[in-house]
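To close the chapter, one final illustration. This time we ask the reader to focus less on the individual chains and more on the assembly as a whole: which components sit near each other, and how the overall shape emerges from the parts.
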Amino acid sequence: MKFGIVVNEGPYTHQAADSAYQFTKAVLEKGHEVFRVFFYHDGVNNGTRLTVPPGDERDIQKNWTALAEEHKVDLVICIAAAQRRGILDANEAKRQGKDADNIAPGFRISGLGQLIEAGIEADRLVTFGD
Amino acid sequence: MSILHTVNKSPFEKNALSSCLGHTKSGDGVLLIEDAVYGALKGTKSSDQVEAAKSTVGLYVLGPDLAARGLAADRLLDGVTVVDYGGFVDLVAKYDTTQAWL
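The assembled structure is written out below.
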């Protein structure tokens, strides 16, 4: 079965980012396909590579990046939500005249159409948020 | 069409669980995750409403979130099924669609 996952909450806020990650991992372990994880609203903050959590704590961004690298999971950040919150890739940084970008490896920035497509293409769409 | 409802806030903090139970149809499922696991306990002010739902609705609670809060299985309402993340995935697959009560 194909799963789409929506993450509406940032990391280290309540628990939604952790729940979404654990759920996504379990979907893959069960042998299902993850069509896409879509990061919306404050969820876009999962995709900055500049977080520095304490060494003895889980690293939420790195966990997502590892999923993308190991399982080719498509991690998509909503562009409008990202621009408001300062999440930029190199192209967007250049286009907006900013001096740096911060998107984490494995994530990509795209539009809300990617969420609609996940809703159409996936058999199940599961939302995590606050 | 059956719906798996997910609730993630404590019934002592938000009314999401109460609203959810007021909207479920026979054959639906309700999965309590994160702070909503407190809704699976017996002897609280929300217990009666949850208990009343179990004749028509499947009630589930996420075990790892119970354990994270130090809540033992003997404190749960009868008829609530404890699942792990793999069981969460199975429930999503079992019901036709999923609705998060955010």
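Helices of chain A lie at 16-29, 60-71, 79-85, 90-95, 113-121. Residues 38 and 114 of chain A are 8 Å apart (CA to CA). With these observations in hand, you are ready for the problems at the end of the chapter.
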